[in-house]
């Protein structure tokens, strides 16, 4: 390991890691990048398109080159920036995007062929022969493209999400952010301070400058200690604020355990939704480079990063050979001085500006450019052009200082465009940024430490003033206040390729070509060349590219404009954005009151929307689901069956105007419903389409209970509230959803009356006293409050019995016990489906939102005498002309199966859209009929009874001859219901 | 200049000196036969087919920003013809056939890639609905296959089969469906239209419609007034705003749809997959990014950005369906303005103003329709009669009760 | 987004279900097909200030009329839809 003096690493501990299988050492406090540099590893990856050898460019999340796959197996994490990966003992990393070893990538042949791969080349070729694109060209391109590889295994780690609320969110813990957080903390505001780094300090960590004459780290430590002592301040390190959303909502990801070998019992990362009344954006700035010929070799990095590696991590690129600096500003000279202070030989500072002076004892080449570099896998020399001619410098590394771009991203997430700051030659946040967000410090163009400190304080003071909080005076430490004097030197013209976007291999030549081909608007430039579309989102490339395009078009940089800044600020894992609600926790699971009873009695369950419902109950000896379902169906038809129907929506409607209200809601007349009776009700949407059906029971003069389908329980209730609050607020009517309050069990079959008579407390169940469609409140089982409805979905004599939900389980058990001698049988949703198809009742497959009342045979129910929701619109010509009708279908050959989803054709008609006569909505095997049966919407169905038609299922290559029959397969007269 | 492998080869050897602008930047002329408002995919395709098929070349496409900056500039690039209703299916199948020959007809590689789309189902009811749809697709020749769970597992063994809230039971597969490079489609149509004489005028905002006695005379723009015999409006997202200039209220709301792309990855997902139990669809681009999306945010918006709950909801769906993606990173998310119509289906029709034509209401499915929409709109502009595949896309279908509601949710745009 | 519920203060928009244009309050009573078709299908859809209906479904089940700018998402106010509706009926009476 090659280490300089000082730095913020813990030399008392040595930790081990491997890169491409080779073992190395580092210290706590290292990133993977700093540790690789300390181990003299320069070559860390390959570029996207040309597979050029690449090294570390930056020291932060803007890194375009040093992407590795971290960890192994199911935890393999592609495209991790080595500059952001905190070193831990046992870390395993591999380089990406090469075929063969990293130092001999076979796909580097692309680099030799690069003349053929100019910007946009693929739009112009690969078109002939047609079939070759998908079979040959595209697969080859796909294999070569991409970066890291995703494991096929499920991500084994846990993620979490949470909410945080704050008066002031401070984004970034550099000098501006620390000053802002400290001021706000002292003012008593509730403060959140977030930084993507694992250590507070921001740029101060990378600099040698002093604050108040002492090392800056002393000040950082003191501020940190005070912030930690304040109960109103919470510090979130390893936390990136990735997006600004509406009304002060910020998206943040905290990397809770990424610095550990495995999370252990903890979550890997947490997604925070931060609601902040105000925010200070102190996100700092990102250095840009200067494109010149072959400027992408390992060993060439941003000068500020080189300084950071020396000061913070006590390491430097290269193997000890001298380094050079290429700059267009004074900041490059600072790097030279800091490196020299650490004992690193500086071969020269190559300054592209005229009339510059040395800042220390180093060789200065003024008005000079780097015009070439040498070294295939690592830089070993530079060609420099000066006023006197060209020269070769033997160097192991080169720092490039092209000026600093403020990190305006978050300030621009609401589409407020940044504005050009001529003094700093950079974009700074403009008007129209997110409300309540105050940019401060380097991200607002206040880049010196003194400016940043003062600006952070200013921003916090202004933000808190808007909340009515006064910020106490905060003495700021004395700090450097230099100005970089950046010159508008954006690239070094030349014949060879000069990289602008390293990762995506976009060179100055590509921009020239885009200009030539009229891909000049900045969005065209980006999309044509793929500039700024790599994992770093062009953080080190975009502004430079705009400058090159501006030069070509003769426009100014601000006229050229920027592309749109969009979340996330930096890549965040999909695992954490999913918040951990995956697998079986993807959605809540609702259980019916009899769920546990059903489970104990052999039920198989099925997902019905949010609910789990019993699908069928397997008895010993039954090996196929059809055996269970047929048995359940026949039990209902012959004896008595029990089914939990709690999931149907229930709405309690009360009030003096309840009758009027319901009459306006249902398409059919409700006003005439008598107390103690139930009526089937059809609700339409306002557009006249059938919406939902259910029952409406009048328990008292001013009290109704309305039921809905399971699927529409929520929406129907919502619409009822809409009608009540928005349409007819003058009516005296109150609503409450009671779906969860009452357990409801269907008791169906010829012996249902007998069974119920054993439970009711002296209630007269006779047909005379309690006829079909009667309802009543009553007590059962010696005093348990209940409601009884004589309604039937199965076509048999049937009831639905409701009790408070907590008694549902006990009621089911009691019914089974009391009905043992009657053959009481629990039945599930499958049997329920068969029973209703046999009876021709519409359900979800028929009431799919595309159906009119006429289609389900209820056209006459839609009253023409009143203005209920949907009634008038149901008479529009398109709906009135509807001639499709719900019919029954029976296979001509009883052994054939009726397949739902088949389309219907007149026998012999062509199988095309013009001859399509309808489709089968539902089908089942009917043990009652003894064959498969179906329900279908058939064109002119009313006039086709007895006709044999074809049910075609070309999707699965089958066709069945079926006979059109009435949709009631069981008891069409309804005698059983009324028995 | 004809694009070809040979041309690329020759230019590579001569330093790329011979390439020409992909299109001109003409100044607007005083008058055109047809002015198309909106230089997005549909507007550019319309111009191309007007010139190519109907021989109408005195055409201008007016674009407020840069060409291709409409929803063609930001979408999830899926092309498919797996519709259910007879008003839709033949149209989208027509579009699919045009996609299949697109590169040859416009001499531009838009990277149409028939990678297949798999719509997963999770219940018997969903399966039956897909069977109905798959059969409808067979009736137009679109083709489809119904897979059971084993069939899906064979294609994508790493989907979440074993630990799911809503287990995968199977899927409806259309092999001819796939993806195309969205920007390439815009550029290809623009270049081909430009070569046929169409003026594509960028940075030209339409500020008013000149209407006299119920007849269109031209448009006012930020670059002066332009006379036109016919004006076609294809500005999905901004339809209500433009049509308000003609005093018309539209059966449309503007909503925001977010979409997402991950960092580049080696090939992981071959085709397009849609989750039947959550709002999530995904494919992988040739560049390696997982391109995915879900539901619209659900409120009216012209802001071109969405909010965090939908980000979470979409990615929750992604993680529930394919837990292997947890360690990939989101690279970028974006929001576009969708023309959400009242029945979820588009409008290609004349308007009450003579000479003013409308192409609108594409909801979030406009990309796949680009070729057919352009063709059908060109047909309407040229002949004053609807194209045979687009006869149902009438503006008066709402008043007359002939809606085309694939989802069956009625007049609530945010549910389509 | 955060919605300033007139009874409950700032609430996350995720607690609400969106319906759309607040004109849906003005259902034409006893209207003819054409009037109802306009009511059901046509919208102003402004780019700017929009009055719209939100239902506090995961909350107190109030329908609100929220005034919001569709270009910036800025919320300018929220009222109980019931109050809005009663006031309109009072105006019309």
Automatic annotation (TrEMBL), chain A:
Domain Aminomethyltransferase C-terminal intervals: 884-971
One Gene Ontology biological process: tetrahydrofolate metabolic process
Recorded GO MF terms: sarcosine oxidase activity
One Pfam family matching this protein: GCV_T_C
SUPFAM superfamilies in UniProt: Aminomethyltransferase beta-barrel domain, FAD/NAD(P)-binding domain, Folate-binding domain
Source organism superkingdom: Bacteria
Residues in GCVT N-terminal domain copies: 595-866
NCBIfam families membership: soxA
Name listed for the protein in its UniProt record: Sarcosine oxidase subunit alpha
Naturally occurring in which organism (per UniProt): Pararhodobacter aggregans
TrEMBL record, chain B:
Enzyme class: oxidoreductase
Subcellular location, record wording: Cytoplasm
Gene Ontology biological-process annotations: tetrahydrofolate metabolic process
Cofactor names: FAD; FMN
Reactions mediated catalytically: sarcosine + O2 + H2O = formaldehyde + glycine + H2O2; sarcosine + (6S)-5,6,7,8-tetrahydrofolate + O2 = (6R)-5,10-methylene-5,6,7,8-tetrahydrofolate + glycine + H2O2
Location (main, coarse): cytoplasm
Highest taxon of the lineage: Bacteria
E.C. code: 1.5.3.24
GO molecular function, one term: nucleotide binding
Record-linked InterPro entries: FAD-dep_OxRdtase, FAD/NAD-bd_sf, Rhodanese-like_dom, SoxB
Database matches in SUPFAM superfamilies: FAD/NAD(P)-binding domain
Annotated ranges, domain Rhodanese: 34-78
GO cellular component, one term: cytoplasm
Keyword terms, alphabetized: Cytoplasm, FAD, Flavoprotein, FMN, Nucleotide-binding, Oxidoreductase
Name used for this protein in its record: Sarcosine oxidase subunit beta
Family the entry assigns: Belongs to the SoxB family.
From TrEMBL, chain C:
GO molecular function, one term: sarcosine oxidase activity
Domain of life of the organism encoding this protein: Bacteria
Record organism: Pararhodobacter aggregans
InterPro entries named among the record's database cross-references: SoxD, SoxD_sf
GO biological process terms held by the UniProt record: tetrahydrofolate metabolic process
Name of this chain's protein: Sarcosine oxidase subunit delta
């Amino acid at each position: 390991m090659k280490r300089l003096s000082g730095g913020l690493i813990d030399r008392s501990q040595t930790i081990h890691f491997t890169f491409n299988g080779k073992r190395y050492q580092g210290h706590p406090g290292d990133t993977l990048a700093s540790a690789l540099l300390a181990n003299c590893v320069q070559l860390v990856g390959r570029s996207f398109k040309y597979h050029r050898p690449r090294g570390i460019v930056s020291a932060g999340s803007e890194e375009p080159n040093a992407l590795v796959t971290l960890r192994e197996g199911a935890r393999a994490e592609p495209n991790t920036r080595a500059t952001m990966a905190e070193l831990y003992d046992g870390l395993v990393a591999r380089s990406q995007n090469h075929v063969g070893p990293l130092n001999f990538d076979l796909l580097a042949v692309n680099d030799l062929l690069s003349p053929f791969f100019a910007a946009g080349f693929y739009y112009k070729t690969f078109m002939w022969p047609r079939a070759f694109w998908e079979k040959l060209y595209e697969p080859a391109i796909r294999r070569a493209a991409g970066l890291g590889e995703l494991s096929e295994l499920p991500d084994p780690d846990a993620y979490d999400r949470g909410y945080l609320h704050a008066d002031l969110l401070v984004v970034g813990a550099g000098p501006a952010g620390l000053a802002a957080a400290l001021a706000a903390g002292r003012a008593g505001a509730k403060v959140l301070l977030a930084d993507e780094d694992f250590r507070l300090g921001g740029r101060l960590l990378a600099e040698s400058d002093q604050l108040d004459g002492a090392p800056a780290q002393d000040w950082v430590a003191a501020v940190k200690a005070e912030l930690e002592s304040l109960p109103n301040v919470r510090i979130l390190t390893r936390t990136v604020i990735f997006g600004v959303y509406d009304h002060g909502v910020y998206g943040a990801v905290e990397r809770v355990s990424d610095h550990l070998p495995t999370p252990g019992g903890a979550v890997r990362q947490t997604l925070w939704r931060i609601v902040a009344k105000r925010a200070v954006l102190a996100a700092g700035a990102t250095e840009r480079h200067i494109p010149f010929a072959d400027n992408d070799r390992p060993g060439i990095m941003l000068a500020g990063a080189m300084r950071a590696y020396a000061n913070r991590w006590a390491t430097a690129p290269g193997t000890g050979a001298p380094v050079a600096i290429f700059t267009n500003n004074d900041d490059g000279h600072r790097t030279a001085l800091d490196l020299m202070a650490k004992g690193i030989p500086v071969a020269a500072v190559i300054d592209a500006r005229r009339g510059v002076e040395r800042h220390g004892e180093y060789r200065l080449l003024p008005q000079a450019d780097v015009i070439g570099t040498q070294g295939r896998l690592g830089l070993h020399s530079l060609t420099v052009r000066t006023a006197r001619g060209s020269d070769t410098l033997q160097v192991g590394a080169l720092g490039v200082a092209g000026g600093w771009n403020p990190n305006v991203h978050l300030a621009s997430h609401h589409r407020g465009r940044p504005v050009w700051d001529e003094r700093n030659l950079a974009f700074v946040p403009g008007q129209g940024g997110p409300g309540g967000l105050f940019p401060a410090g380097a991200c607002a163009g206040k880049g010196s430490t003194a400016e940043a400190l003062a600006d952070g304080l200013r921003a916090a003071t202004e933000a808190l003033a808007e909340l009515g909080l006064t910020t106490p005076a905060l003495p700021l430490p004395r700090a450097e206040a230099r100005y970089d004097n950046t010159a508008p030197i954006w690239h070094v013209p030349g014949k060879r390729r000069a990289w602008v976007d390293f990762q995506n291999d976009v060179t100055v030549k590509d921009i020239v070509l885009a200009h030539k081909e009229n891909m000049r608007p900045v969005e065209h430039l980006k999309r044509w060349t793929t500039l700024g579309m790599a994992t770093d989102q062009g953080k080190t490339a975009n502004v430079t590219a705009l400058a090159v395009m501006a030069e070509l078009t003769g426009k100014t940089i601000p006229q050229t404009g920027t592309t749109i800044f969009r979340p996330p600020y930096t890549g965040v894992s999909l695992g954490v954005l999913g918040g951990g609600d995956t697998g079986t926790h993807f959605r809540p699971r609702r259980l019916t009151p009899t769920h546990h009873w059903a489970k104990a009695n052999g039920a198989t369950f099925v997902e019905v929307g949010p609910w789990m419902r019993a699908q069928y109950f397997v008895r010993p000896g039954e090996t196929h689901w059809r055996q269970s379902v047929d048995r359940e169906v026949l039990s209902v038809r012959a004896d008595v069956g029990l089914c939990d129907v709690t999931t149907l929506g229930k709405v309690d409607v009360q009030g003096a105007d309840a009758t009027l209200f319901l009459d306006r809601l249902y398409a059919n007349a409700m006003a005439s419903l008598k107390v103690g009776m139930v009526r089937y009700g059809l609700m339409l949407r306002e557009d006249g389409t059938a919406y939902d059906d259910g029952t409406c029971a009048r328990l008292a003069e001013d009290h109704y209970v309305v039921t809905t389908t399971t699927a529409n329980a929520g929406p129907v209730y919502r619409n009822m509230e809409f009608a009540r609050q928005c349409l007819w607020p003058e009516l005296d009517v109150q609503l409450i959803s009671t779906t969860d309050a009452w357990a409801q069990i269907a008791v169906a079959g010829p012996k249902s009356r007998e069974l119920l008579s054993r439970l009711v407390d002296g209630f007269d169940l006779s047909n005379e006293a309690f006829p079909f469609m009667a309802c009543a409140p009553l007590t059962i089982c010696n005093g348990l409050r209940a409601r009884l409805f004589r309604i039937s979905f199965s076509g048999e004599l049937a009831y639905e019995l409701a009790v408070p939900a907590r008694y549902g389980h006990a009621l089911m058990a009691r019914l089974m016990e009391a009905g043992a001698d009657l053959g009481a049988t629990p039945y599930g949703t499958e049997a329920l489906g068969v029973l209703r198809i046999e009876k021709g009742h519409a359900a979800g497959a028929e009431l799919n939102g595309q159906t009119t009342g006429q289609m389900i045979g209820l056209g006459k129910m839609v009253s023409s005498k009143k203005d209920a929701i949907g009634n008038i619109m149901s008479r529009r010509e398109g709906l009135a002309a509807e001639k499709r009708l719900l019919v029954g279908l029976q296979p001509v050959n009883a052994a054939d199966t009726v397949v739902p989803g088949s389309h219907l054709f007149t026998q012999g008609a062509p199988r095309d859209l013009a001859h399509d006569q309808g489709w089968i909505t539902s089908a089942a095997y009917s043990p009652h009929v003894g064959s498969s049966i179906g329900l279908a919407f058939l064109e002119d169905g009313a006039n086709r009874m007895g006709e044999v038609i074809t049910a075609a299922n070309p999707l699965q290559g089958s066709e069945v001859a079926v006979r059109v029959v009435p949709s009631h397969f069981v008891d069409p007269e309804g005698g059983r219901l009324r028995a | 200049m004809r694009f070809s492998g040979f041309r690329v080869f020759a230019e590579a050897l001569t330093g790329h000196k011979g390439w020409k602008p992909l299109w001109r930047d003409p100044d607007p002329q005083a008058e055109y036969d047809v002015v198309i408002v909106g230089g997005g995919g549909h507007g550019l395709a319309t111009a191309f087919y007007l010139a190519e098929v109907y021989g109408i070349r005195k055409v201008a496409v007016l674009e407020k920003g840069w060409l291709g900056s409409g929803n063609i500039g930001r979408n999830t690039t899926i092309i498919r013809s797996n519709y259910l209703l007879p008003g839709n299916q033949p149209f989208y199948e027509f579009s699919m056939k045009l996609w299949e020959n697109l590169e040859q007809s416009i001499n531009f590689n838009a990277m149409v890639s028939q990678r297949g789309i798999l719509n997963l189902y999770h219940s018997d009811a969903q399966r039956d609905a897909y069977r109905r749809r798959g059969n409808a697709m067979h009736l137009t020749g679109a083709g489809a296959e119904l897979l059971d769970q084993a069939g899906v597992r064979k294609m994508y063994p790493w989907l979440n089969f074993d630990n799911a809230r809503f287990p995968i039971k199977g899927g409806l597969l259309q092999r001819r469906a796939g993806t195309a490079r969205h920007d390439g489609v815009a550029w290809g149509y623009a270049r081909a239209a430009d070569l046929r004489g169409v003026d594509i005028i960028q940075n030209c905002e339409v500020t008013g419609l000149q209407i006299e006695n119920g007849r269109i005379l031209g448009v006012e723009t930020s670059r002066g007034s332009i006379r036109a015999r016919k004006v076609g409006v294809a500005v999905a997202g901004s339809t209500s705003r433009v049509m308000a200039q003609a005093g018309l209220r539209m059966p449309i709301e503007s909503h925001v749809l977010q979409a997402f792309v991950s960092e580049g990855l080696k090939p992981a997902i071959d085709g397009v997959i849609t989750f039947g139990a959550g709002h999530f669809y995904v494919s992988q681009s040739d560049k390696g990014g997982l391109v995915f999306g879900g539901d619209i945010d659900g409120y009216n918006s012209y802001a071109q950005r969405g909010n965090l709950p939908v980000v979470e909801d979409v990615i929750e769906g992604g993680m529930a369906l394919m837990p292997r993606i947890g360690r990939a990173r989101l690279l970028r998310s974006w929001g576009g303005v969708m023309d959400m119509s009242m029945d979820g289906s588009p409008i290609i029709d004349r308007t009450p103003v003579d000479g003013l034509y409308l192409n609108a209401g594409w909801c979030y499915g406009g990309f796949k329709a680009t070729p057919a929409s352009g063709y059908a709109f060109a047909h309407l502009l040229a002949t004053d009669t609807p194209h045979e595949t687009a006869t149902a896309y009438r503006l008066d279908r709402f008043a007359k009760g002939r809606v085309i509601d694939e989802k069956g949710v009625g007049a609530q745009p945010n549910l389509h | 987004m955060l919605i300033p519920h007139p009874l409950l203060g700032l609430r996350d928009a995720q607690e609400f279900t969106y319906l759309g244009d607040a004109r849906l309050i003005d259902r034409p009573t006893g209207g003819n097909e054409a009037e109802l078709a306009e009511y059901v299908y046509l919208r102003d859809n402004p780019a700017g200030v929009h009055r719209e209906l939100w239902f506090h479904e995961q909350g107190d089940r109030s329908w609100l009329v929220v005034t919001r700018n569709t270009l910036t998402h800025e919320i300018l106010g929220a009222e109980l839809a019931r109050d809005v509706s009663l006031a309109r009926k009072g105006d019309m009476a």
